[in-house]
Design goal:
Layout (H helix, E strand, L loop, with lengths): L9 E9 L2 H8 L1 H20 L3 E6 L2 E6 L2 H17 L10 E9 L1 E3 L2 E3 L1 H10 L7 E4 H7 L8 E8 L8 E7 L31 H10 L5 E5 L6 H12 L7 E5 L8 H10 L9 H9 L4 E6 L5 H14 L3 E7 L8 E5 L5 H15 L9 H10 L4 H8 L7 H13 L7 H15 L3 H10 L6 E2 H7 L7 H13 L4 E5 L2 E5 L2 H13 L3 H26 L4 H7 L1 H13 L3 H17 L3 H13 L6 H18 L2 H17 L3 H17 L3 H16 L4 H11 L8 H17 L3 H17 L3 H14 L2 H17 L3 H15 L5 H16 L3 H18 L5 H17 L2 H12 L3 H13 L2
Parallel strand pairs: 4-7, 10-13, 10-14, 11-12, 12-13
Antiparallel strand pairs: 1-3, 1-4, 2-3, 5-6, 7-9, 8-9, 15-17, 16-17
Helix pairs in contact: 2-3, 6-7, 8-9, 9-10, 11-12, 11-13, 12-14, 13-15, 16-18, 16-19, 17-18, 17-20, 20-22, 20-23, 22-23, 23-24, 23-25, 24-25, 25-26, 26-27, 27-28, 27-29, 28-29, 29-30, 30-31, 31-32, 31-33, 32-33, 33-34, 33-35, 34-35, 34-39, 35-36, 35-37, 35-39, 36-37, 36-38
Length: 896
């Protein structure tokens, strides 16, 4: 390695740019030039100090190459620390985002080309100012010895444009480096939630091609085959291949974590990030949410809820013309239009290739050619079943291949004859693998069967008995089961997480039942996840980071199982505590109906609850009611929660409940009670020394002063903005600015409102910025500024077209109706009729400002149209479905 030479071989790349630099150039001119000069000096100095090579600068963007990923990471951290200590107040701060990746690239004339360069550029676009992102490969190169004092936090896996595999993304954590940011920004690939595969795909290339071809003409393809034959893996591979052919992406839904058929539609809704409206059946809500979106649904493990899946799929493919479905099941759905693709065992060559690859993962010295004949014999005996082959291959480290063949022959000949041949083979293989385990391994595998969707070491330690509580022993046991392919290890935020594949989990549950351990295991599972839910609630209540919801959602199947167990066992205290503690999770995941059901069920039991538990339960229920549009019920539960918090002298609970009441009272125009609740909430909040909570309470309390004290209103909002900015929370700041704008609009100060909305949009993430665009549109319409209203309405409508909520659809169509009525009164009448119908279905009452705008539109329509004609147009618009309504609104906007 020569001093000053360009890095070669595996090169680490560090890219950076300044967030919002164009706006700063426009606003600050010469000051920005000085700031950029200082920025350039810092970056170039820290890069070159660590033997990095700046091979390109584009405006304020730097592109540098390093000999090692660790050097690149050291430089990035040093740059961020120095920038944080600089005074860039003359340009309203300077925030630089950075990304690091690595790989072999082509170097020509001092520049670099190739996939690693493209990867780091695309990774950069996902980050935020002040943040450093590290690709999976770069993180692997940094390994277990990162720079001193630095750890890498796993942020998840995201798709990068034009790159097939999801990218693992990490963020460095160390002293004097900001750690909390908004979720990673969306990148320019179709949205999806396909899980990343940790092993290669072997042996079914022709099946993938066949399914890809079928999806061009068939709305529903069901992969049918025995357990363990490879249905899930094939479906995921086919979905990944098809991803770029559907603008609204591919969505994976695993039904193995549910047992109640009622949850089928809501589980799909949750995967799509949507919720159902008030009093709308779940299937209707799902059809409304999908509409005319071009997407692929992968519905996995359908057999135990097959009748309901069949009903749901039949409804979706009939109503949603651009949606296709891949289902996996041990039996066909038996619905009209279904193409049943029966999955056979792997052919011999593919089976041997799979065995060899998995065997090499267990033993690097494994050689295929030296023992091919034996492997062929083993694969024939295993009927080419993928999971059986993987279980057998995992044993080659401990058992020579020849001996393995003998053991398999004895085991398979001894298998029962009451099942189909492939089921018999799979069961015999699992039983053989189980019998080879020691007592500790067998116990953990049995007890893991009560965990749904995976588990942590801490959870399984609480569920098992005896020596399982020893953390080191638990880790050793889990690691051993992973090596034997009986558990799968899942990377999750740097903490090990495990799950058993469904055929193995079912076998383990049978063994648990046979041992008479099921009742105790279920009880300990419920207690373990009640403790997890309690900790999750405390985190949400005090300092929920950007990954809180990701971790909470991961445990949702276990929370559901614990709720079911505690309810069925009649443990009302445990059930009520679980319902209250999980209410924020159901709220944030938009599983409103399900969250309400659990909370209401706990309260209906007629059992005297601890005041603290009941308070949390009613507070959560009030928020769930509010978001579903049940405003009266929400208000009642808020008042009840405050009384309980007060009785228990829970200042923190009272702060939340009172600020919620203040907001409810202000919505009702009861400003005297609103201000009284707000003043008490703020007094208590200032005594808790929690800046984050105080900022939230200030935002929620501010509307109480809308009519009584406008100066106080602005002072409260300003303080909330200051606190949010000081904590580095862009989303919280943007949310407060949005509420501030709403209050200014309610006072009639529409010009001031749009200024606040513009401030909020500058820093908001994409999804929130679109919602703020809708608020800005309303104010522009009140100012009769149609030129500025139109782009805001377009952005709002485009955003809700991806993941629709009925409220947003109704408001977007109201704005389009207002814009279009001047040119086409008839279309304006149809649109406002549909919007009013949608809100009525939800029981949603418009705020006075919104009602004023709609009333003005109605008056305008009545002046221009005859009453009979207007009524006919109202009936026509009210008869639309959501797909028609959004399509008509989009077409209308394109002509304005």
């Amino acid at each position: 390695m020569e001093t000053g030479a360009l890095p070669t071989g595996t090169v680490a790349f560090l890219f950076s740019d300044i967030e919002g630099s164009t706006r700063r150039w426009d606003a600050f001119g010469e000051s920005m030039r000085d700031a950029l000069r200082r920025h350039d000096e810092i970056l170039r100095g820290e890069i070159e100090t660590r033997r990095g090579y700046v091979f390109k600068t584009i405006g304020d963007a730097f592109c540098a190459a390093f000999w090692s990923a660790s050097q690149a990471l050291e430089a990035a951290i040093a740059v961020q620390r120095r920038l944080a200590n600089e005074d860039f107040s003359a340009v309203d701060g300077l925030r630089v985002r950075m990304a690091i990746s690595a790989g072999e690239a082509d170097e020509r004339d001092g520049d670099y080309f190739g996939t690693p360069v493209n990867r780091v550029a695309r990774l950069l676009s996902a980050g935020h100012g002040g943040q450093i992102l590290v690709s999976g490969h770069a993180a692997d190169l940094i390994g277990s010895q990162p720079p001193a004092g630095v750890t890498l936090r796993h942020l998840g896996s995201i798709p990068l444009r034009d790159l097939k595999e999801l990218e693992r993304v990490y963020q460095p954590l160390t002293e004097n480096l900001r750690s909390e940011f908004a979720p990673l920004r969306a990148v320019e690939t179709p949205p999806n939630n396909l899980p990343r595969q940790t092993t290669s795909f072997v042996g079914r290339a022709r099946d993938v091609i066949a399914i890809e071809t079928l999806l061009e003409t068939e709305a529903l393809v069901t992969l049918v085959g025995a357990g363990g034959i490879g249905k899930t893996r094939l479906a995921l591979e086919a979905a990944a291949v098809a991803l770029n052919n559907r603008k609204d992406g591919s969505w994976f839904v695993d039904f193995s974590s549910i047992s109640d058929p009622y949850l089928v539609s809501s589980t799909v809704l949750s995967a799509l990030g949507a919720d159902q409206a008030k009093d709308v059946p779940p299937l209707d809500a799902l059809i409304e949410a999908i509409g005319d979106r071009e997407l692929l649904l992968v519905l996995d493990n359908c057999e135990h809820v097959v009748a309901e899946v069949a009903r749901v799929v039949s409804g979706v493919v009939r109503a949603c013309a651009h949606t296709t479905v891949i289902a996996t099941s041990r039996e066909a759905l038996d619905v009209s239009g279904e193409f049943v693709y029966r999955l056979d065992s792997l052919d011999l060559d593919s089976a041997v290739a799979l065995f060899a690859e998995r065997a090499r993962a267990a033993d690097r010295n494994f050689s295929l050619e030296a023992q091919r004949a034996v492997l062929e014999d083993i694969c024939r005996r295993l009927d080419g079943i993928a999971l059986a082959i993987e279980l057998a291959a995992a044993r080659v480290r401990a058992i020579p291949v020849a001996k393995l063949a003998e053991h398999l022959e004895l085991r398979l000949l001894a298998g029962g004859r009451d099942r189909q041949p492939r089921q018999q083979t799979m069961r015999a293989l699992i039983a053989w693998s189980y019998d080879l385990l020691n007592a500790q391994e067998q116990s953990m595998l049995r007890h893991s069967a009560v965990c749904i969707g995976g588990f942590t070491l801490s959870a399984i330690a609480q569920i098992c008995e005896g020596d399982a509580a020893d953390e080191l022993l638990v880790l050793e046991t889990a690691t051993s089961l992973v090596e034997k392919s009986l558990l799968v290890a899942i990377a999750a935020d740097g903490q090990p997480r495990y799950r058993a594949l469904e055929p193995i989990r079912q076998f383990a549950r049978e063994r648990l039942d046979d041992a008479g351990e099921t009742a105790g295991a279920l009880r300990r599972h419920a207690l373990a996840y009640a403790a997890t839910a309690r900790a999750s609630y405390e985190e949400w209540d005090t300092n929920a980071g950007p990954d809180w919801l990701v971790r909470a959602e991961r445990e949702l199947p276990n929370f559901r199982a614990a709720l079911e167990e505690s309810s069925g066992a009649g443990d009302r205290d445990l059930n009520a505590s679980l319902a209250g503690d999980t209410a924020p999770i159901f709220l944030r995941l938009s599983l409103l109906a399900e969250g309400i059901d659990w909370c209401e069920s706990a309260l209906r039991a007629g059992f005297a609850l601890e005041p603290a538990v009941e308070a949390r339960l009613r507070y959560g229920l009030s928020a769930l009611y509010q978001n579903r549009g049940f405003l009266d019920r929400s208000f009642s539960e808020s008042r009840h929660a405050v009384e309980l918090y007060r009785r228990g002298n829970d200042a923190r609970g009272m702060v939340r409940g009172l600020s919620q009441l203040a907001h409810r009272y202000s919505q009702q125009k009861n400003y005297d009670d609103a201000q009284a609740a707000a003043e008490e909430a703020l007094h208590l909040a200032r005594g808790l020394a929690d800046r984050r909570l105080l900022a939230e309470v200030l935002r929620r309390s501010a509307p109480a002063f809308t009519q009584l004290d406008a100066d106080r209103l602005r002072a409260v909002y300003a303080e909330s903005v200051t606190l949010s900015r000081s904590s580095g929370s862009d989303d919280e700041t943007a949310l407060t600015l949005m509420w501030w704008g709403q209050s200014e609009a309610e006072l009639g100060n529409y010009a001031e409102a749009v200024r606040r909305f513009a401030e909020a949009r500058e820093i908001a993430r994409e999804e929130l910025a679109a919602i703020i665009a809708g608020e800005a549109a309303a104010s522009y319409l009140f100012l009769d500024d149609r030129a500025n209203a139109r782009p805001m309405v377009r952005e709002y409508l485009a955003a809700i077209g991806k993941v629709r909520t009925p409220v947003d659809v109704a408001f977007a169509l109201s704005y389009v109706a207002r814009l279009s009525a001047a040119h086409d009164a008839a279309e304006g009448a149809r649109m406002i009729a549909y919007a009013e119908k949608l809100l009525a279905l939800m029981g949603w009452q418009r705020l006075p400002m919104d009602r004023q705008m709609v009333d003005a539109l109605m008056n305008d329509l009545r002046e221009r149209l005859e009453e009979a004609e207007l009524e006919a147009l109202f009936e026509e618009g009210a008869a639309w479905n959501e797909e028609q309504a959004v399509a008509r609104a989009t077409a209308c906007l394109s002509t304005l």
